[in-house]
Amino acid sequence: MTLRVARWPGSSKPAPILLFNGIGGNFELLTPFVAALGDVEVISFDMPGIGGSTLPPYPYRMRHVARLAVHVLRRMGHERADVIGISWGGALAQQFAHTAPSRCRRLVLCATMAGSPAAWPASPSVFLKLLSPRRYLRPGYMEKYAGQLYGGRFRWDKELARDYASRIKKPSRAGYLLQLNAITGWTSALWVWRLRQPTLVIAGADDPICPPINGHILAKLIPNSRLEVLDEGHLFVISQPQITANLVRNFLEGDHVREPAEAAHRPWHEAMHADGA
């Protein structure tokens, strides 16, 4: 298997950024966000069968990709990183922080969820569209349904949708299905409350794919975390790259470390009922 890796040069102090994209997305889609991050080293890669990466010899699960990401990070000469995950990549970011905690300095979770049973899903019409890579394979389809899928500025800004579609490198159908398979049945609800990394959770108020309640759930479950809700949709890293990047850089460069909350020692269902929640 050949993995296509991107490395944007910049400062790696105190750590580089390891960036995980959403399902079916090649790393070029995140170029505006990476540019807005400024002088920081960013590492990303196309998932197996997506963008310029070839198909793997066998199906995989999220824990396998987390281990693959550790390998990529070390091949790039780093032992740890600040990890940012978007949507599907947010699930992978949680898995990475759990599988290799010493390699994750800080964690940023964008437009993502913990998984069943601690998650609020998309509507059936949106969910059905996510089961197919059609939006990546047909530019016209992306432009037509971007607002319904992504919400926020994509609802009215057709030029934004066209620009986003122009940077798509068509994924293979098999690669997309393998990503679906990897996350099917996955959940962090059983262990996310054990994470110790300082964590920033960012949600979009108008997110059809990952309703903002999921951000509140994650921030409640992860002990050393805080939540930001933007007046945007699912792809706020694309529609508001500078605002998102400013939040991320301030978090990564600031002093946000505190003692783990009491909820860190309790399972998710108890944490959700703590303090009158």
Automatic annotation (TrEMBL):
One of its GO terms (molecular function) is triacylglycerol lipase activity. It holds the Pfam family Abhydrolase_1. Coiled coil: none annotated. Residues 16-238 form the AB hydrolase-1 domain. GO terms for biological process: glycerolipid catabolic process. InterPro entries: AB_hydrolase, AB_hydrolase_1, AB_hydrolase_fold, PHA_depoly_arom. SUPFAM superfamilies: alpha/beta-Hydrolases. It comes from the Bacteria. NCBIfam families: PHA_depoly_arom (TIGR02240). This is Poly(3-hydroxyalkanoate) depolymerase.
